[in-house]
Amino acid sequence: MSKQTKKEILLIGGGKGGVGKSSLSQTIAVYLKQLGKNPLIIDADPQKTSRDWVEERRENPDLPNIPCIHATGDIRQDIKDALKSYDYIIIDPCGIDPNNLESKEIRSALSLATRHLVPLRPKRRDLKTLRQISSIVDTAKIHNPNLICRAVITQCPSLPNQAYRILEAKEACKSYEISPLSSITMHRNSYDDCDENGCSVLEYEDEKAKEESIALIKEFLEI
Ligand SMILES: Nc1ncnc2c1ncn2[C@@H]1O[C@H](COP(=O)(O)OP(=O)(O)O)[C@@H](O)[C@H]1O
Ligand SMILES: [Mg+2]
Q1: What is the pLDDT of residues 7-52, one digit of tens each?
Q2: How many domains does the chain have?
Q3: Which of the residues 65, 162, 182, 212 could staple to 157 if both were Cys, CB 3.0 to 4.6 A apart?
Q4: Which atom of ligand 1 lies nearest, measured to the CA of 25?
Protein backbone atom coordinates (compact mmCIF):
# COMPACT_ATOMS: atom_id res chain seq x y z
CA MET A 1 0.00 0.00 0.00
CA SER A 2 1.46 3.41 -0.92
CA LYS A 3 2.11 5.79 1.93
CA GLN A 4 -0.27 8.73 1.65
CA THR A 5 0.92 12.24 2.53
CA LYS A 6 -1.15 13.76 5.29
CA LYS A 7 -2.91 16.79 3.89
CA GLU A 8 -2.60 19.98 5.91
CA ILE A 9 -4.88 23.01 5.92
CA LEU A 10 -3.01 25.92 7.48
CA LEU A 11 -4.73 29.12 8.50
CA ILE A 12 -2.29 31.97 9.06
CA GLY A 13 -4.30 34.65 10.76
CA GLY A 14 -6.49 35.98 13.41
CA GLY A 15 -4.64 39.11 14.36
CA LYS A 16 -4.69 42.65 13.05
CA GLY A 17 -3.44 43.92 9.70
CA GLY A 18 0.34 44.24 9.46
CA VAL A 19 1.28 41.43 11.88
CA GLY A 20 2.89 39.42 9.06
CA LYS A 21 0.15 37.01 7.92
CA SER A 22 0.85 37.39 4.21
CA SER A 23 4.64 37.33 4.61
CA LEU A 24 4.42 34.15 6.68
CA SER A 25 1.97 32.49 4.28
CA GLN A 26 4.33 33.22 1.41
CA THR A 27 7.41 32.00 3.28
CA ILE A 28 5.67 28.75 4.28
CA ALA A 29 4.62 28.18 0.65
CA VAL A 30 8.16 28.75 -0.63
CA TYR A 31 9.65 26.47 2.05
CA LEU A 32 7.23 23.64 1.22
CA LYS A 33 7.96 24.10 -2.48
CA GLN A 34 11.70 23.86 -1.72
CA LEU A 35 10.99 20.57 0.08
CA GLY A 36 9.32 19.27 -3.09
CA LYS A 37 5.77 19.48 -1.67
CA ASN A 38 2.81 20.99 -3.50
CA PRO A 39 1.38 23.99 -1.63
CA LEU A 40 -1.45 26.30 -2.67
CA ILE A 41 -2.06 29.73 -1.16
CA ILE A 42 -5.69 30.75 -0.79
CA ASP A 43 -5.58 34.52 -0.61
CA ALA A 44 -8.74 35.29 1.37
CA ASP A 45 -8.08 39.01 1.77
CA PRO A 46 -9.86 41.56 -0.47
CA GLN A 47 -6.51 43.40 -0.61
CA LYS A 48 -5.07 40.42 -2.57
CA THR A 49 -1.56 40.89 -1.15
CA SER A 50 -0.44 37.30 -1.77
CA ARG A 51 -2.01 37.09 -5.21
CA ASP A 52 -0.20 40.25 -6.28
CA TRP A 53 3.04 38.82 -4.85
CA VAL A 54 2.59 35.60 -6.82
CA GLU A 55 1.98 37.58 -10.00
CA GLU A 56 5.10 39.69 -9.41
CA ARG A 57 7.22 36.56 -8.98
CA ARG A 58 6.05 35.23 -12.32
CA GLU A 59 8.13 37.97 -13.97
CA ASN A 60 11.28 36.38 -12.54
CA PRO A 61 11.94 33.01 -14.24
CA ASP A 62 14.43 32.04 -11.49
CA LEU A 63 11.69 31.89 -8.86
CA PRO A 64 9.45 28.81 -8.67
CA ASN A 65 5.79 29.46 -9.35
CA ILE A 66 3.60 29.38 -6.24
CA PRO A 67 -0.02 28.44 -7.08
CA CYS A 68 -2.52 30.88 -5.58
CA ILE A 69 -6.26 31.45 -5.80
CA HIS A 70 -8.35 34.27 -4.42
CA ALA A 71 -11.52 33.48 -2.47
CA THR A 72 -13.59 35.39 0.08
CA GLY A 73 -16.64 34.80 2.27
CA ASP A 74 -17.36 31.16 3.13
CA ILE A 75 -14.28 29.45 1.67
CA ARG A 76 -15.03 25.85 2.77
CA GLN A 77 -15.84 24.66 -0.76
CA ASP A 78 -12.73 26.35 -2.16
CA ILE A 79 -10.64 24.47 0.42
CA LYS A 80 -12.32 21.13 -0.34
CA ASP A 81 -11.81 21.62 -4.09
CA ALA A 82 -8.15 22.57 -3.55
CA LEU A 83 -7.51 19.41 -1.50
CA LYS A 84 -8.09 17.35 -4.66
CA SER A 85 -4.92 18.77 -6.22
CA TYR A 86 -2.75 20.08 -3.35
CA ASP A 87 -1.35 18.59 -0.13
CA TYR A 88 -0.83 21.87 1.70
CA ILE A 89 -3.46 24.60 1.63
CA ILE A 90 -2.20 27.86 3.14
CA ILE A 91 -4.92 30.40 3.89
CA ASP A 92 -3.98 34.08 4.12
CA PRO A 93 -7.02 36.02 5.41
CA CYS A 94 -7.50 39.70 6.16
CA GLY A 95 -7.02 41.02 9.68
CA ILE A 96 -9.57 41.01 12.44
CA ASP A 97 -10.52 44.51 13.51
CA PRO A 98 -13.65 46.29 14.73
CA ASN A 99 -14.76 46.64 11.06
CA ASN A 100 -14.40 42.93 10.37
CA LEU A 101 -15.81 41.21 13.43
CA GLU A 102 -17.70 38.67 11.36
CA SER A 103 -14.50 37.38 9.68
CA LYS A 104 -16.33 34.80 7.57
CA GLU A 105 -13.12 33.65 5.88
CA ILE A 106 -11.46 32.90 9.23
CA ARG A 107 -14.46 31.14 10.73
CA SER A 108 -15.10 29.00 7.64
CA ALA A 109 -11.38 28.13 7.30
CA LEU A 110 -11.16 27.18 10.98
CA SER A 111 -13.93 24.63 10.58
CA LEU A 112 -11.59 22.61 8.29
CA ALA A 113 -8.08 23.72 9.30
CA THR A 114 -5.54 21.26 10.73
CA ARG A 115 -3.30 24.06 12.06
CA HIS A 116 -3.84 27.71 12.90
CA LEU A 117 -0.97 30.17 13.36
CA VAL A 118 -1.73 33.50 15.02
CA PRO A 119 1.01 36.09 14.37
CA LEU A 120 1.12 38.95 16.88
CA ARG A 121 3.56 41.79 17.35
CA PRO A 122 4.64 42.36 20.95
CA LYS A 123 2.40 45.41 21.14
CA ARG A 124 -0.55 46.09 23.37
CA ARG A 125 -2.92 46.72 20.45
CA ASP A 126 -2.12 43.36 18.88
CA LEU A 127 -2.35 41.48 22.16
CA LYS A 128 -5.78 43.00 22.79
CA THR A 129 -7.11 40.89 19.89
CA LEU A 130 -6.26 37.68 21.81
CA ARG A 131 -9.60 37.65 23.61
CA GLN A 132 -11.52 37.62 20.35
CA ILE A 133 -9.16 35.14 18.69
CA SER A 134 -9.44 32.69 21.59
CA SER A 135 -13.22 32.91 21.49
CA ILE A 136 -13.28 32.15 17.73
CA VAL A 137 -10.82 29.26 18.23
CA ASP A 138 -12.82 27.80 21.13
CA THR A 139 -15.97 27.82 19.00
CA ALA A 140 -14.12 26.20 16.07
CA LYS A 141 -12.82 23.42 18.33
CA ILE A 142 -16.36 22.29 19.14
CA HIS A 143 -16.63 20.88 15.61
CA ASN A 144 -12.91 20.63 14.85
CA PRO A 145 -11.40 19.28 18.10
CA ASN A 146 -8.06 18.27 16.51
CA LEU A 147 -7.26 21.83 15.44
CA ILE A 148 -3.77 22.86 16.58
CA CYS A 149 -3.59 26.57 17.37
CA ARG A 150 -0.24 28.30 18.01
CA ALA A 151 0.75 31.94 18.30
CA VAL A 152 3.98 33.45 17.02
CA ILE A 153 5.45 36.75 18.14
CA THR A 154 6.61 38.69 15.09
CA GLN A 155 8.64 41.80 14.28
CA CYS A 156 10.32 41.67 17.70
CA PRO A 157 12.63 44.50 18.78
CA SER A 158 16.29 43.50 19.02
CA LEU A 159 17.25 45.92 21.82
CA PRO A 160 18.02 43.89 24.96
CA ASN A 161 16.05 46.30 27.16
CA GLN A 162 12.95 45.50 25.09
CA ALA A 163 13.21 41.71 25.51
CA TYR A 164 10.63 41.81 28.28
CA ARG A 165 8.02 42.74 25.67
CA ILE A 166 8.53 39.41 23.91
CA LEU A 167 8.22 37.48 27.18
CA GLU A 168 5.11 39.44 28.16
CA ALA A 169 3.53 38.79 24.75
CA LYS A 170 4.14 35.04 25.14
CA GLU A 171 2.61 35.14 28.63
CA ALA A 172 -0.44 36.96 27.25
CA CYS A 173 -0.92 34.17 24.66
CA LYS A 174 -0.65 31.51 27.37
CA SER A 175 -3.23 33.32 29.49
CA TYR A 176 -5.69 32.77 26.60
CA GLU A 177 -4.58 29.14 26.25
CA ILE A 178 -2.97 29.80 22.87
CA SER A 179 0.46 28.24 23.12
CA PRO A 180 3.19 30.49 21.64
CA LEU A 181 5.94 28.99 19.47
CA SER A 182 9.37 29.36 21.01
CA SER A 183 10.47 30.63 17.55
CA ILE A 184 9.92 34.33 16.88
CA THR A 185 10.70 36.72 14.05
CA MET A 186 12.76 39.84 14.66
CA HIS A 187 12.02 43.20 13.09
CA ARG A 188 14.17 43.12 9.94
CA ASN A 189 14.16 45.33 6.84
CA SER A 190 14.80 42.27 4.67
CA TYR A 191 11.12 41.27 4.98
CA ASP A 192 10.16 44.44 3.12
CA ASP A 193 13.13 44.33 0.76
CA CYS A 194 12.44 40.78 -0.41
CA ASP A 195 8.76 41.57 -0.94
CA GLU A 196 9.74 44.38 -3.31
CA ASN A 197 11.52 41.77 -5.41
CA GLY A 198 8.59 39.34 -5.45
CA CYS A 199 10.52 36.82 -3.37
CA SER A 200 10.40 35.50 0.17
CA VAL A 201 13.11 35.80 2.81
CA LEU A 202 14.10 32.22 1.95
CA GLU A 203 15.12 33.46 -1.50
CA TYR A 204 16.90 36.56 -0.23
CA GLU A 205 20.36 37.38 1.11
CA ASP A 206 19.60 37.77 4.85
CA GLU A 207 20.76 34.52 6.45
CA LYS A 208 19.37 35.39 9.89
CA ALA A 209 15.89 36.02 8.48
CA LYS A 210 16.13 32.73 6.61
CA GLU A 211 17.18 30.83 9.73
CA GLU A 212 14.46 32.27 11.94
CA SER A 213 11.80 31.59 9.30
CA ILE A 214 12.81 27.96 8.80
CA ALA A 215 12.93 27.33 12.56
CA LEU A 216 9.47 28.86 12.91
CA ILE A 217 7.96 26.81 10.07
CA LYS A 218 9.49 23.55 11.31
CA GLU A 219 8.20 24.15 14.82
CA PHE A 220 4.72 25.10 13.58
CA LEU A 221 4.41 22.15 11.18
CA GLU A 222 6.24 19.73 13.54
CA ILE A 223 8.53 18.57 10.73
N1 LIG B 1 9.68 40.20 10.79
C2 LIG B 1 9.42 41.33 10.12
N3 LIG B 1 10.16 42.45 10.31
C4 LIG B 1 9.91 43.61 9.67
N5 LIG B 1 8.91 43.76 8.79
C6 LIG B 1 8.12 42.69 8.56
C7 LIG B 1 8.32 41.42 9.19
N8 LIG B 1 7.36 40.57 8.75
C9 LIG B 1 6.61 41.26 7.87
N10 LIG B 1 7.06 42.53 7.75
C11 LIG B 1 6.52 43.62 6.91
O12 LIG B 1 5.37 44.12 7.56
C13 LIG B 1 4.39 44.53 6.60
C14 LIG B 1 3.09 43.79 6.86
O15 LIG B 1 3.30 42.41 6.62
P16 LIG B 1 2.17 41.49 6.00
O17 LIG B 1 2.73 40.14 5.89
O18 LIG B 1 1.61 42.12 4.76
O19 LIG B 1 1.08 41.57 7.18
P20 LIG B 1 -0.46 41.18 7.18
O21 LIG B 1 -0.70 40.21 6.06
O22 LIG B 1 -0.68 40.59 8.53
O23 LIG B 1 -1.22 42.46 7.00
C24 LIG B 1 4.99 44.22 5.24
O25 LIG B 1 5.55 45.41 4.75
C26 LIG B 1 6.06 43.17 5.54
O27 LIG B 1 7.12 43.20 4.61
MG1 LIG C 1 -2.06 40.26 4.48
Answers
A1: 999 999 988 899 999 999 999 999 999 999 999 999 999 999 999 9
A2: 1
A3: 162
A4: 17
